[in-house]
Amino acid sequence: MTQDENKEGIKGMANPGRYGIERIAYLLMRLTGLGLLGYFIAHVYETSNILRGRMGWDDFLAMTQTTEGHIFLVLVIGMCVFHTGNGIRIMLGHGGVGVGKPARPDYPYDPASQNYRHKIGIYSSIVLAAVAMMYGMAVMFGE
Amino acid sequence: MAQVSSVADEQPPNPLSTTKSILLRISRFNPEFDETNKFMEFTVSYEKWTTVLEAILDVKKHHDHSVAVRYSCRQATCGSCGMLINGKPRLACFTKISELDSNVVTVEPMNNFPVIRDLAVKFERLFDTHHKIKPYLINDDSEVNSNEKEFLQSPKEVENYIQFANCIKCGLCNSACPTMTTDSSFVGPQALAQAYRYVADSRDKGKDTRLDIIDESHGIWRCHFAGSCSQVCPKGVDPAMGIQFLRGYLLGFRS
What we know:
The structure holds two protein chains of two kinds. Chain A is mainly alpha-helical.
């Protein structure tokens, strides 16, 4: 702790339990965004292997046919679906859509912007991601 | 006198009184001498109506008067006694110990504010960002100097901003904000909500000026709609709503 800062830093983002599902969605959005960025870079590297000819391409592609490769792809599916679903919710919210209307607040001051529509959006994104991951696992591990 | 005291002794105990005790852990930190904070523990008795601030003042009165805490009104109006109570930003005068449902109450200074000492933090930056968004009516006409001009508002026009006018500048929203945990330049939910308060006021003509001020890389675009600011606001201001409406103006969703 210093006099000038007293900031939580990354720990403040990674400890979302105090503020409900919205803060968990915020953390998941950041993590999945970083994960998808990593996948995008890896994907560019993977496809560049075509320059090594058919042998090089097949060798690299064989990595995704392993158990670890399948688990990695399942995670990518989950990240992609959650990031898309929650991203649509956030984009609408950023435009002021579905965040409630200003009104004289009454105790206990439940914030209108944290309403059931957004909670449904968050839970739906999580459920959709889980379903997509299970489908992906069924396809990749089912054979 | 003896008769009076015997009558008093015969009275049944107050049925509302259910005195219990908790362990109050207070963060102690003096930036002039300490490298890191340490916690001092006190056992404090409380009733179901006892607030955390009253418990801290009890410690100051009976155990250690050197505990630094800022407070004034004791009724959630002045915004002085914001602190982390069991890890969450709250007003100490507005938080009853019985509501915390814990035998241990830990109080620390608010995050994202420089610590003066113990539980007292500096508010300079919050006031600077608040001032930056021009928190006053911008209008060439005046209802103060003119004998004829009066700014009339319908109840609906008042409803558009009155919620945001409840801000007491306690800083709890800035303390809860996940962006402020890492970004020292972010203008913060308190100032952004106040920008909306004036933009939404039908008497104000400074919308474009304020939108220009917040339309920067460390301005409104750093808000990611986590909503923690609204969850901790003790006055129901809902900064997250105001910020999204402001962004709606900038994105063209609102006019």
